[in-house]
Amino acid sequence: MALFGLFSKEKKETLDKGLEKTKDSFFSKLGRAVVGKSTVDEDVLDEVENVLISSDVGVETTVKIIRRIEERVARDKYVGTDELDRILREEIAALLSDNNTVDVADDFALPAGIKPYVIMVVGVNGVGKTTTIGKLAAQFHKRGKKVVLGAGDTFRAAAVDQLKLWGERVGVPVISHGMNTDPSAVAFDAVKKATEIGADVVIIDTAGRLHTKINLMNELTKIKRVMQKFTSEAPHEVLLVLDGSTGQNAFIQATEFTKATEVTALAITKLDGTAKGGVVIGISDQFKIPVKYIGVGEKIDDLQTFNKMEFVDSFFKK
Fold this sequence. Notes:
Blueprint: H1 9-18, H2 20-34, H3 42-54, H4 59-76, H5 84-98, E1 117-122, H6 129-142, E2 147-150, H7 157-170, E3 174-175, H8 183-197, E4 201-205, H9 213-227, E5 237-243, H10 248-260, E6 265-269, H11 279-287, E7 291-295, E8 303-305, H12 308-315
Parallel strand pairs: 1-4, 1-5, 2-3, 2-4, 5-6, 6-7
Antiparallel strand pairs: 7-8
Subcellular location: Cell inner membrane; Cytoplasm; Cell membrane
Binding site for GTP: 123-130, 205-209, 269-272
Main location: membrane
């Protein structure tokens, strides 16, 4: 049974399917951890700790979850291993509720009174950043929003061309100056165009050169400053895209990008092709930055707004 009724049946089925590899891997490990055991004792908790860490939940978040279970075992005196699934489910849901991840009741809604709403998208090359921008544009466009895209990843010709293709596919304008041009000038012109045509949202792609962190920091700061000439609050959102299939490497990227710029939301992609979906739990907990979108398939509608209760429900669904 779903914990929230916000999802359509189709979306829920897509989420269930997208988390299948993670779920199957998690439960097979968990099954091995408790085989022959009847109560949740210290040995079982050690095994559960290993299962969570090997599912890319992360060490710090795993320690928190184990501590919560220990407190319940101490309070309830006797806890059978047959109850472990339910307890884990409840404690992970509670942990996600304690951080800043807020369930989105209205899919792909934009804040009222801000127009254009400016989203700057950051992330290393290869995480699905440009594809995520294209899918976001499609979702907004489908809901009747006027969208402008800015091809600010001028370091890679492929990124500029890819965004143009998405623009044609979705039917939204793409502001591009080509390769090796000033990304802040692209951002400025994109916000200018959005303002002129009364667009609801403008999404700016940026370069993902993490190995030159100081240059990246300076570049992102300059893009922000230039956009603010048009809209003083821009960007209203800095969306960091992470590849969920990279597991712990996604933590490292999140750490580096949160140092380079003020990240306000996360999108975690490629969860359907990996058994490392536990990374969503860890990243959500460790960075206290809302996970806003998750990618659970290749189709446009497989980019979903993140609902923590539905996620936990799918994660533990047998």
